Amino acid sequence: MAATLPLLDTLPSIDPATGKVLRSFERTSPLAVPQLVAKARAAQQSWAKRPAIERCAQVAEFKDENIGDERTADRRGGARIGEASG
């Protein structure tokens, strides 16, 4: 019989290379999901109205601030982007 893990209020994001917890995220109640989906759909409609060049610039800015250079991606996810994506 498989062991049952205890339900946690948070979910850890673990660096597979080191086993270190990078950050923990709060669990979302299933009751909150419909409202969150509706909010995401509304945001997507607003996003879709922006010019593609503006959306590309914002995605690039997000990448630079949150992902960084692919040569350093191994520190964030255990593998370089080229290795991870095949």
Descriptive report:
There is one protein chain. This protein is α+β, with helices and mostly antiparallel strands and 86 residues long. The chain has a domain at 35-68. 45% of the residues lie in helices and 13% in strands. The protein has four helices and two strands; from the N terminus they run ββαααα.
Question: What are the key terms here?
Answer:
alpha+beta; 2 strands; 86 residues; 45% helix; 4 helices
Topology record:
Elements: E1 10-14, E2 21-26, H1 33-48, H2 52-66, H3 74-77, H4 81-84
Antiparallel strand pairs: 1-2
At a glance:
It contains four helices and two strands. The chain has 86 residues and is α+β, with helices and mostly antiparallel strands. A two-stranded antiparallel ribbon has the order 1-2.
Radius of gyration: 18 Å
**Whole-Å distance between the termini?**
36 Å
Poorly predicted tracts of residues: none
General shape: flat
Q: Give helix and strand order, one letter per element, not per position.
A: EEHHHH
In total, the number of strands is 2
Oligomer: single chain
Q: β content, as a range?
A: 5-15%
Spatial order of the strands forming the largest sheet: 1-2
User: Would you tell me the overall average pLDDT?
Assistant: 79
State the helix count. Answer: 4
> The biggest beta sheet, please?
2 strands, antiparallel
Structural class comes to alpha+beta
What percent of residues adopt helix (DSSP H or I)? 40-55%
